[in-house]
Amino acid sequence: AQSVAQPEDQVNVAEGNPLTVKCTYSVSGNPYLFWYVQYPNRGLQFLLKYITGDNLVKGSYGFEAEFNKSQTSFHLKKPSALVSDSALYFCAVRVPNNAGNMLTFGGGTRLMVKP
Amino acid sequence: DSGVTQTPKHLITATGQRVTLRCSPRSGDLSVYWYQQSLDQGLQFLIQYYNGEERAKGNILERFSAQQFPDLHSELNLSSLELGDSALYFCASSYSRTGNTEAFFGQGTRLTVV
Question: Closest-CA residue in chain B for A94?
């Protein structure tokens, strides 16, 4: 079985400061990892993914994430936070197999960026 | 706009009733996934269809069923509704059979059971 943990329910950061949203995963096999963002009353929007290759992946809106196989982590980062980054962030894992390739999501982390 | 269309956006119904949620995937996407988002359970995978066939089942109740039609749109049927079924239901679609492409989500259907 695959699982994702987002240890922080909420992350508070001041505008202009770097931000990190943590994610760890547990799978058997090689994972595909994803980050999504959800704004109020909206669906989930794709930010970035790790499939293979370079451990540092860059995504939308200046976000990046680093895949660390030994620590089974895929933390989301941004060098300088904006107030408009305030939203709910979800980490997800997928391990393709014959039984399907659904995404398994973490519980979500609410990011609050204060002016 | 993700290209995934869900209707209706909001639905209010009484306990014991049956509703149907509809999803049109992005053009060309063969996989459709249904998820339930509630405050206490987070995002729970319900079921996946690929090109008309059921591919994977998650925590989907027996009162719930889904299908994917030849034009690839999908419907999620919820019956004998209970108060606890109130949630946001998302549909997502993706192209790849192997899972290396991202899934695109619709804006969801907010179901309120009263």
Answer: B99
